Amino acid sequence: MRIHNREELSKIREMAADKVSSTKCRILICAGTGCLAGGSGEIYEKMCELTKDCKDVDVEFGAEIAHSERDTDVNADVDKGESVSGIEIPVAVKRSGCHGFCEMGPLMRIEPLGILYTKVKPEDCEEIFERTIKHGNIIHHLLYKQDGIEYPKQEEIPFYEKQTRLVLKNCGHIDAEHIEEYIAVGGYQSFAKVLFEQTPNDVIETILESNLRGRGGGGFQTGYKWKQVARQQEKIRYIVCNGDEGDPGAFMDRSIMEGDPHKMIEGMLIAAYAVGAQEGYIYVRAEYPLAISRLRLAISQAEDRGLLGEHILGTDFSFHLHINRGAGAFVCGEGSALTASIEGKRGMPRVKPPRTVEQGLFAKPTVLNNVETFANVPMIIEKGAKWYRSIGPENSPGTKAFALTGSVKNTGLIEVPMGTSLREVIYDIGGGIKGDAKFKAVQIGGPSGGCLITPHLDVSLDFDSLKKMGAMIGSGGLVVMDENTCMVEVARFFMHFTQNESCGKCVPCREGTKRMLEILERIVNGNGRDGDIELLLELADTISSTALCGLGKSAAMPVVSTIKNFRSEYEAHIYDKKCPSGNCKKLITYQIDPELCRGCSKCARNCPVSAITGEIKKPFTIDTNKCIKCGACKESCNFGAVKEV
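RESULT FIELD:
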C-alpha cells in the first residue's frame, strides 16, 4: 500500500505498533549470517511448525521473570518456573538480524519475557515450545551462564548490560524483512520530519552541529562533507553508501544491512534531501549475499509504500536507490576506487584533487559515507544534535560499533560510547581473555591499523586519542591477542593481506609492501638478518609518505606499531633464531629430555624423515639437521619427553 502523506505514515505507524503489541508472544530467532551458518534457519522452520495453531488455542504463558531470578542456581531443577494460565496468545515467529552475541549462537529471544536462549539446536525447539511458550518455565541449560550465575534476561547479561546500543538498537528486536516492523518503532519519522518541517540547509546544520564523524575509518566530519556537496554548481548529485567492509574479522556494516536495512536507507534519504540528490547507490561486496538480499527486499518494500521513487509522501522530492555488488577488492573501500567500480571501471584510486565531493560518481558531486554513518543520521534528526553530542567525548561524539574477535571469551558485535576504554571492552563486555591467559595486545582498525598494548588499556577509544597512539579506529575491528601470540607473525599476516589487496597502481604500495612482506617472511622462517628492522622502518616511512591512497599510506602501520611495542620479539627472531611465543614453526627446535624418555621408540617410528635414533629402553635423540619440525614426535610421545626449545 502506497503512503501518500505524512498523516498516513503516522497512521500506519500506529497500526504497525498495535499489531506488534497485540502479539502476546514474539519469538525472535537470529537470522544473521553467523547464526544461519549454525542452523538457525532450521530452528525457525521448526518453531513455525510448532506454533502454527497457537492463535486458536488457550495456552499458558509465563509471568515476566523477576529480576532476582538472575541468581538462580545453575543446577536448579528445570521444572522450576512461574506461570499464569488461561491466556489466549497469538504467537509470532520472526527472523531477526544479528543479536551480536555471536559466541553463543544460534540465539533465540522470547518476548515479552526478554529471555535469551543460547546455543539453541533444532532438537531444543519442542522443549522450548512446551515448557517456555506454553507454560512460562525457564529452560536453564539454554541460558547464558557466567561465574556461576545464569542470566534469563538478555538485558542483564554483562555482554549487553555494559553496552549502549543505539545504531544496533533494532538488530535482534525486529523482523529484518518487514518494513512495517521498522515503521512500528518509529522508522521513517525522521525523514518525514525533515521533508515537511526543515529546509535542506537546516538538515546540514543539524548534522554539522552534532559533529557526527564518518564511521568508515577516517573520521571526517559528515556535515561538512554534505555542505561541500550542497554548494557545488553542478545540480546532478549522488548519494553513495560504502558497504564494502573488507577488514579481516569485521562485520559491523554487514550486521546493520542484514538486521536493520531501513535505518541506513532512511539516513541516505535524509542526506539526499539535504544535498538535492535524486539517485543513490549502495556498494556491497558480493561476499555478503544475505545483506544484498535483504537490501533488495527493503528497497522494494520502500518503493511499494512510496518511501522511495517519485514524489515521496506526496511531495516534489524524488529519490531512487540502486545496489552495486563489488567483487571483494579491499581497495574498493577507498572512495575514488569505489566510485570507479560502480561506473564499471577497474577499482583503482585516483590522484586528488578533485575530491569526491566535487567530482565523485560519474564525475558529479557525491556524498560518500559508510553504512554505520548513515544509520546514525535518523536518530540525530529525531533527538537533536545536542543529545548526540552528550554521548562520548566532545570531538568524537556518539557511539561506535566494534567487531570483537580473537582471544576473548565473548566474541561478537558490540556498540559502546566513543571514549570507552579498551579495558571496559575486553574485560567488562568481552569477559576477559580466553583460558584466563594474559592480555598481550589488540589490533585495532584492521590491516591498516596498529596494535595497542597493556599500558593502553585505559586509553579512550576515539578518533583523536588513538591517532596519538599510532593507531586508528578504522571501521571498527578489534582483534584481541593473548600472551601466546607471535607479534612478528601478526605483522606478517596483515602485510600479506595488504600486499595481496594492493591494486598495483602506484609503485610505493605495489613494490614497497612486497619488499616488506619478503623481509617479514624471512624473519619468521629463521633467516632474518642484521639491519632488517631498520630496513622495515625505512620502507614503512617511504610507503606511507608517497603512496597514492589510504590503503598504501596505512599499510605499514601494523609493522611499525609491532616494532615499536615488541622490538625484542623481532630481535629474538633475527639474532637468537627463537620465537618467544613458540608459534613460528621454522624457529622451533625439538629435543628429547633423557630423564623423561623411556626408550619406547614410538617417536622414532612416527618421524617421517628418520631424524630420531636410539636404542630400546635408552634415551633417544633428535638430529636437528634432519628434523623438519613437523611435531609428530611430540604428539606421539606418551611421557612428555619431547620438548620445544
